[in-house]
Amino acid sequence: MGAVGFYLFYVLNWIVTLLPLRILYLFSDILFLFLYYFPGYRRKIVATNLKNAFPQKTKKELARIEKKFYHHLSDQFIEIFKLTHLSKNQAFKRFMLTDTNLLNRLFSEDRDVVAVLGHYANWEWLSVSLPFFTNLKTVSIYKPLKNKYFDKYMTNMRSKYGFVMTPMSNVLREIINNRKKNIRSMYAVITDQTPPEGDIKFWINFLNQDTPVYLGAEKIAEKYDMAVVFFNVQKIKRGYYTLTPELLFEHSKGLPEHLITETHVRRLEQIICMKPEYWMWSHRRWKYKREHSDG
What we know:
seven-stranded mixed beta sheet, two-stranded antiparallel sheet
């Protein structure tokens, strides 16, 4: 999409998302019909991913999960676009932190934190809500979108209430600058993305399949002895989410190699297995195949 197409989208989105969410969810119900029935969106990818992840489930069970996923995906699109007009009061009301004690303690102890999470429930609203819940500077380490117009749009939406967006290529510079200024920070990393084929360094069995994973969160945490926290995001009902921070490692210096990665991958897997419909099954997560057994 070029500049003209993007600005047409921007104007239309700005106008439509002035509507309250209860109205916008009617659009989500319509969008579901297009994503699930006609013409359909990545139905084969979703069905294959679910079948491989849960070989023990029946066709009926898999079909039920798939349909629930597309309902949630439709809501996700609407909720992402609503970021344009999502107020502070709405964000605070609809995305709640269940316990502030852990993040408050780590800040009071002058600790930096790596927060790991997956494409589960609603990671976009976390970006506008998280700065309200902690005195730690909140930084997202992200992979820029290929479309420069949408990349700037999403960066602006995610950072409008204080979330700092830092590309992967600039993360060490961001950490060094914050530490020089004695700014205690929390670096949020979505860890279930697929590394480029040439950058794959580690494989793990995840959802019953050999899966390449990034090691960046582990390397950052170990280098600066940061605490590692898992962000457990849960969907309570339509348009309402909770965030529960879970301490995985108080200190990360000197831990066995890959322990941090294996631990947060296993925790995400547990959460997905409990309510699989809220994970992003339409991603081509397993497009690369492992060619040898050594990891």
